[in-house]
Amino acid sequence: MKYKLLGRSGLKVSELCLGTMGFGTEAGWGADKETSFAIMEAFANAGGNFVDTANIYKLGTSEKIIGEFVSPRDRDYFVIATKYSLKDNYTNPNASGNNRKNMMRSVEGSLKRLQTDFVDILYLHIWDDLTPVDEVLRGLDDLIKQGKVNYAAISDTPAWIVAKGNTMAELMGWSQFIALQVEYSLLQRSPERDLIPMAQHFGMTLTPWAPLAGGALTGKYLRGDAGRIKPGSNRLNETSIAITKEVMAIAEKLGVEPSHVALKWTMQKGFSCIPIVGATKVSQLEENLKTVGLVISEEDMQKLDKASEIDLGFPGNFFKEERVRLNNFGGFYDKIEKR
């Protein structure tokens, strides 16, 4: 396992992040405590230290399991990321949302469940389109000053909000967001329109959720595995099936699993990206860990890019037009270093 710096920080995290949304058996699925412990042990033994959870995952059971596993061990080895925003009860209107009151309440609950004095990374989970971004940033910065949180991050939020927030934080001397968590995979490349360019500009690391598109990119649904995917899902439409078949073809050529190809594609895209790999079985984690040793050739990367290409819309497509590049660069576009 190799390690990467998370965003514009000195924090060193493993090149794969362990997703723990499935730790717990609530809702009729997931890993029990014994299995979750075995997954965490296997991840740590492989050199993994980056663990992702949230206050709401399995009604708090995910955080409890992580806390029980980590507390008798070396807490400082693990980089634990959790999230606030989503409701963990129905008691009052402020038991959910991005507001400061819910942030403080939620973090205190997470610290108790995780059996720790601090979390390494706190994500805003989903933008509520109500709370002023300065309220969020000031709250996160206060938690960091109190030593209850080390770094701030954000998930599932429009690019312009994140950009406004990081700019404001820089001007005010507050802690900036160092990571951006969004859905991103070969079947979901829409973040390339504005979220990813924005993250690159601010030096943020992308931590994609669903990098295997709910298992679709493993090819299991094409092999007849019903899984938990819903009928009519866009992960099984004509385009998605064609992309998955390309992944499977390249995997067969390389002698690896399709999941390895799909995960490595996100890691070789040319920007800071650490995919979140969920597991409810040790065998699933062990399979995903094999990704780190794979290298996809430039030729195969281009095939995957072509198969999964999206319409960037305006102004993305406009910037690519030859006449625009000619006017903008005077014929020197191919000779100028790009950021």
Written overview of the protein:
The protein has 339 residues and is of the alpha/beta class. The chain has two domains: 3-308, Alpha-Beta Barrel (TIM Barrel); 311-339, no CATH class. Helices cover 40% and strands 12% of the residues. It is built from twelve helices and ten strands. The strands form two sheets. The chain has an eight-stranded parallel β-sheet, with helices on one face. Helix 5 links the parallel strand 7 (149-155) and strand 8. Helix 5 (159-172) packs parallel to helix 6, helix 7 packs across helix 8 (258-267) and helix 7 packs antiparallel against helix 10.
- Please name the CATH topology of the largest domain: TIM Barrel
Can you give the mean pLDDT?
Answer: 96
Q: How many structural units, i.e. domains? A: 2
* CA radius of gyration: 20 Å
Quickly count the helices.
Answer: 12
